[in-house]
Amino acid sequence: MLMIQEQTIHFPSIKGNIAIVEKLIDDICADYEINEDYYGNILVALTEAVNNAILHGNKSNPDKKVSVTFGADDNGLSFVIKDEGDGFDYKNIPDPTSPKNIENPNGRGVFLMRQLADEISFKDNGRMVSMKFKTAN
User: Fold this and answer.
1) pLDDT surpassing 70 at residue 101
2) Considering the entire predicted model, what is its pTM?
């Protein structure tokens, strides 16, 4: 895999814009010949992150933007998702697998992102999430 320049897309906080991210992931995974299982991990983790940025970060305010930055190098693919919201306490998220939370319809996004990405970090009070997916052994 060759080092490429980063690519960033920006879009308004409208739920339907998740399709833009899905297309980006489809194109990237085709370009880098990502296998189907790994494609699924990237797709779910990124759409969860973008969905959280739109709904929870920017409160579905179309005047606020979400940005997705993609990069690639010899070790894999990286994505940074940013919103313009107030942030959140990413260190104290209830465990969705705990019996008291298992019936909750929400609260699984960050858990899934942590399970599916090879590396994940939150910055800027939770307004920015960085995820890496290794493509080399």
Assistant:
1) no
2) 0.88
